[in-house]
Amino acid sequence: MACGSDEEREQWPASANDEAVRLEPSAVVSVGNGDGHSTLAGSVASVHRLLDRIAEGGTPTERVVLGGFSQGGATAIAAGLSYGRRLAGIASISGWCPDRTHPRAHAANASTPVFCSSGTADPVVSFQLAKQSVKALGEVLPAGALTFERVDRSVHPPKRHEMLAATEFIR
């Protein structure tokens, strides 16, 4: 998956940890904090290294479901789709697709099942952003690979039935 323009690759969209921030479809802010993971590209590279270590340890990546919540969900989508070895799936709860303009997937994960859920009135990640993300993912994934759970909630954290749906997806 491409991370957008050069400028977008060097910045991270805001997260639930930022004060008084609501993610809208065009929101991108810098969150550099010196930890080496302050860019999307840096976070994706870290996840790829972790997945490589898992594979080197003897667990086939085809048995790994990569998932996350909020910004972690966005990272899971970007890292999962761009990873060079097949994954079992990708799960994103209250997350978004970082590249909604030109989404791409590595051939190894071009048909990997993806689960996304979003609250209709989430105060952090707007439902409009979630719908745009699902549309973008639908353009790169084959029919049936994408599962989207629209959840009636006005808080950022997931509801119990949403977590159960994600659990069922992982099984």
Descriptive notes:
With 171 residues, the protein is of the alpha/beta class. It is 34% helix and 13% strand. It has five helices and four strands. It has a four-stranded parallel beta sheet with strand order 1-2-3-4, with helices on both faces. Helix 2 crosses helix 3. The longest helix has 17 residues. It starts with 5 loop residues before the first helix and ends with a helix. The N terminus is likely disordered.
Question: Brief description of this entry?
Answer:
The chain is an alpha/beta fold. Helix content is 34%, strand content 13%.
Overview features:
171 residues, alpha/beta, 4-stranded parallel β-sheet, disordered N terminus
The number of strands is 4
Beta-strand percentage range: 5-15%
Q: Report helical residue fraction.
A: 25-40%
Overall geometric form: globular
Rg (C-alpha, Å): 15 Å
Low-confidence segments, given as residue ranges, are 1-22, 26-34
Write down the overall mean pLDDT.
Answer: 83
H/E topology pattern = HHEHEEHEH
Total helices: the number is: 5
Head-to-tail CA distance between termini:
25 Å
Which structural class fits the helix and strand makeup? alpha/beta
The biggest beta sheet is recorded as:
4 strands, parallel
With strands numbered from the N-terminus, the spatial order across the biggest sheet is 1-2-3-4
